[in-house]
Amino acid sequence: MRVVIVDDERLARERLARLLAIHPDVQIIGEAADGLAALEAITTLKPDTVFLDIQMPALTGLEVAAAIPPTAAPAVVFVTAYDQYALQAFSVNAVDYLMKPVEEDRLALTLSKLRTRTSHENIEKLIAALHQRKDHSLQRIVGKHLNRLHVLPIETIEAFITSDELVFAITPNGRFLIERTLRDLEALLPTETFARVHKQTIVNLEKLTVLEPIAKGGASARLRCGEIIEISRRYAQDLRQKLGW
Hints:
Blueprint: E1 2-6, H1 10-20, E2 27-32, H2 35-45, E3 49-53, H3 61-67, E4 75-80, E5 96-99, H4 104-115, H5 119-132, E6 140-145, E7 148-153, E8 159-163, E9 166-171, E10 174-178, H6 182-188, E11 194-198, E12 201-204, E13 208-213, E14 219-223, E15 228-231, H7 233-243
Parallel strand pairs: 1-2, 1-3, 3-4, 4-5
Antiparallel strand pairs: 6-7, 6-10, 8-9, 8-12, 9-10, 11-12, 13-14, 14-15
């Protein structure tokens, strides 16, 4: 079992590494001290399992788990210093958790559970559970630009578009590749701010500056960053109602 350990506390990483080293079938192939480094390690190293701290600065363990590319698809074990109540809203049978300080016997049970499960099933169930949380709204998202990962606050994103089957976030600082589908984003984004305006576009309503009707009931719109997007006839009526247009 190839493992990556993610925790912003060095001593916590060292303790977990010592306990994992007891098990001959476990190989620690990487460590990370923050969410962006975790995503880089997961994408590059493609571990079987990630032990993922929940409370981390900039990007939480939950946000890291939701941003893991489907092609990486590791099993995810959350590690937390807080009581189990913190996990009740999103825990599913395919995902385990460990309380800090991690105990040897409890870790052995987790490893036994992981040996009998498929990583692809784990990450799919995890992401589905995260998406179904009624109290969950997307605050940040990870985007890639020039082979670097960036944490993008949702309020800075002017639109999400698909191009050549890839999804991009449009911001004043350029476009960032997003490892999610528009359907996933539509389910997670706050509906009071973001709206679907085209089968290929979700827009931040607060970033619209100019709306211009076009033939057949559609429209074009200018974003604050200057980009022009198309509003299809199918979504134009709902947009008019939201904006009082």
